[in-house]
TrEMBL record, chain A:
Residues 7-126 form the FAS1-like dehydratase domain. GO terms for molecular function: (3R)-hydroxyacyl-[acyl-carrier-protein] dehydratase activity. InterPro entries: FAS1-like_DH_region, HadA-like, HotDog_dom_sf, UPF0336/Enoyl-CoA_hydratase. GO terms for biological process: fatty acid biosynthetic process. This is Unannotated protein. Coiled coil: none annotated. It comes from freshwater metagenome.
UniProtKB/TrEMBL annotation, chain B:
GO terms for molecular function: fatty acid synthase activity. GO terms for biological process: fatty acid biosynthetic process. InterPro entries: Fatty_acid_synthase, HotDog_dom_sf, MaoC-like_dom. Residues 11-107 form the MaoC-like domain. GO terms for cellular component: fatty acid synthase complex. This is Unannotated protein. The lineage of its organism: unclassified sequences, metagenomes, ecological metagenomes. Pfam families: MaoC_dehydratas.
Length: 138, 141
């Protein structure tokens, strides 16, 4: 009993818009302990900021009953971001998540979710998150 | 000082960073990122699911590792691709000193299109907490 392979290629509806504010950027930068002066005015977000919106979009997918994913056994194993441009203050981000791959790995299953982050209809960054769903203990 | 594409050589090491992870850092990151999973804050809960103690968010470790690159380049928007595998967790005990992770970087490749690839490392004690960590960076010409 694992994930539903028929969901490979499934595209979820776009997430609700997320407005990027200087406060949100500054809180994220501060929580990373990043003192780079480039972030001082809160206009440009750090490279991993997109996770704030992509993780929420994937959470919605993870809980989709059709996917048959055992959330309690899920571990986030890999993350990649490919940037068209950095996220900036004033962006209104929406995320389109899709199921790119589901495959067995020993007794576990791995799945890759692609997340396209857009602002004003333009692609800003693409994320790929690989998760491992641990199989039943032997 | 700006790092120029023409000044970089394969094998060049970037200045390493030793960064501390405390429980307070995890709380701040949880709120800033929206990832409120109790394994990152609640010791009892973490232990109940088989972890040795509270662990740092893998995405916090990823967010810190890239500082090796962005501190070196100066401009964080120079990063055009960044990926990691979260191989092992950073365990964070409830102490004032927390846990220290050493982040390293090395120029692995110089590309014809004016970009370079940096291989990143993240070592906690003697454990690699990130694997396959690499960033593509566009440098000033």
């Amino acid at each position: 009993m694992g994930m539903n392979h028929d969901m490979i290629g499934h595209v979820y509806p776009p997430s609700q818009p997320y407005l990027v504010t200087a406060e949100k950027i500054s809180a994220f930068v501060k929580s990373l302990g990043d003192t780079n002066p480039a972030y001082a005015d809160g206009t440009v977000a750090p490279p991993t900021f997109p996770i704030v919106v992509t993780m929420n979009a994937m959470d919605a997918a993870f809980h989709d009953p059709a996917l048959q994913l055992d959330y309690a056994r899920l571990v986030h194993s890999d993350q990649r971001f490919e940037y068209v441009r950095p996220i900036r203050v004033g962006d209104e981000l929406t995320v389109s998540a899709s199921v790119e791959e589901i495959k067995p790995l020993g007794t576990n299953e791995i799945a890759t979710f692609k997340t396209e982050v857009l602002s004003g209809g333009e692609l800003v960054v693409t994320g790929w998150s690989k998760i491992v769903v641990r199989g039943p203990e032997a | 000082m700006t790092i120029k594409f023409s000044d970089v050589v394969v094998g060049q090491e970037l200045p390493a960073l030793d960064l501390t992870f405390t429980r307070a850092d995890l709380v701040a990151y949880a709120h800033a990122s929206g990832d409120l999973n109790p394994i990152h804050q609640d010791e009892e809960f973490a232990k109940s699911v088989g972890l040795p103690d509270v662990i740092a968010h893998g995405m916090l470790t990823m967010g810190r590792a890239i500082q090796v690159v962005t501190n070196w380049v100066g401009d964080p928007t120079a990063v055009i691709d960044y990926s990691v595998r979260m191989t092992r967790p950073v365990v964070v005990p409830d102490t004032a000193v927390g846990s220290v992770v050493r982040f390293t970087g090395k120029v692995a490749q110089i590309n014809d299109d004016g970009t370079i690839q940096v291989e990143l490392g993240a070592i906690f004690g003697d454990v690699k907490v990130l694997g396959l960590a690499k960033a593509t960076v566009r440098l000033a010409q």
